[in-house]
Amino acid sequence: MTLEIARIPVLSDNYVWLVHEPVSGETAVVDPAVAEPVLAEAEKRGWAITQIWNTHWHPDHTGGNADIQAATGCQITGPAAEAERIPTLDRKVAGGDTVTLGTVRAEIIDVPAHTAGHIAFHLPNAKVIFVGDTLFAMGCGRLFEGTAEQMFANMQKLAKLPADTCVYCAHEYTLSNGRYALAAEPDNAAIAARMAHVEAARARGEPTVPTTIGEEQETNPFMRAKSAAELAERRAAKDNFR
Ligand code: ZN
Ligand code: FE
Prior knowledge:
33% helix
């Protein structure tokens, strides 16, 4: 599988992902917070943007939709359940639907909780998943429009993907997540070891995502929560953690 994925850091801590499928030449943008840096990166690489994929309606995931579409004529795909809040959507999808990028197939997975209609784009043949603000390195999204039960179900669902699946999330939150993870599971040696790497990487100004499902199974206190109640407890603790 020869998919090329480029990271575009924007705003204070967002990552926009450019996904290029070289056989067809198609390129998708995942969660464009803004347009300019995305158009510039695609131009620099000689990639023609043909699609935008939105995981949820928040402006830091959709703010670049209109301008990128105006510049490229690309098609915009996003959650049917949030279509009213993303007026730029051309194609409305939900769990079980399939989206294609040239020869590559993305399966839509429903992961409601951060927002009510949040979706993930899973590319099983490429062993890649774009999770937006649902799963982060050692963290999970805040429960703005859903419940701990829903987020627990999401974590269980994602944990069942192959361990070597690469997880592309939309924010660089790893350092803050890791500090809480250490407090939540002080005896977890895998978290301590990972944090040493994360601290060094951030000190050098390097990104810490993508992550993998396997790494999250070992070090993510939300994926590791044994019940919805435990996830709820940990989410509330993280919300107030300094
Ligand atoms: Zn969000
Ligand atoms: Fe976000």
